[in-house]
Amino acid sequence: MAKFGWSSLWKLISWLSSYMSSLLDKNGVSIIFAAVAAVALLVSLRNRKRRNIETTTSSSRAVNATESSCLPHTGNKSSSGVPTGPFSTRTTSSWKLKNVFVGVSRITLGTDLEKSCLFRRVSNSVGEQVQLDPDNVQGFLQLISLFEVFLIIRVNSDEEEISCRKALEVTGTFQSGLHPAKVLFCETLQGTTAIVRQLEPHMHIDSNPSVIVDLERFIQRLVYIGSGGFSSKTNKPIVILEQLADIFQ
Question: Into how many domains does the chain fold?
Fold first, then answer.
């Protein structure tokens, strides 16, 4: 029926008309009525099949679009650095995962060495050193394995910059997905804000509330890592966590 075209239908009607003309004297109006009914049935079946095909196609596209929009853009990173594939084999029932990470592929993470969500200062016989906080290192490693992450660190000297890079290297973050060129340094909070606005991430995470407030107008998703509240300028919903590791719990 799908291949049955209008030209074939017209030929059928013409043939039926000729045939009915020859039989009109013998069978009368009943033959004409039966022929018209047959043609009407064929047209009805053709239209019904076409509507079924269009409905099935539209439904399939709608389902695919809904599933695509609900899946987080996470997973293994492609050659372009953008994560692809399913989120994870672990459950995604947490509200944080479903609401914060949907549609996210690029993340900027800002921190410093004072109110840090990633680093901590350690004093030993050699002197003061910088290390990754063991309570947050696993969360950070998971973050960089799933997303394209730019780490923005506020430092006061070249020595602090060197110490931060060494701490990242020793912990194996560069082998876990963090590109060395995506570790950026600045000296001020305004510097962090400027870098984030230039990178235009889908989400920004920071341990300083002033940076979060300054970025409210420019970044859709914001996550503050720390304790205590702060005054929002736009009343935009902001996720507040005590530590970086909580984002995956």
Answer: 2
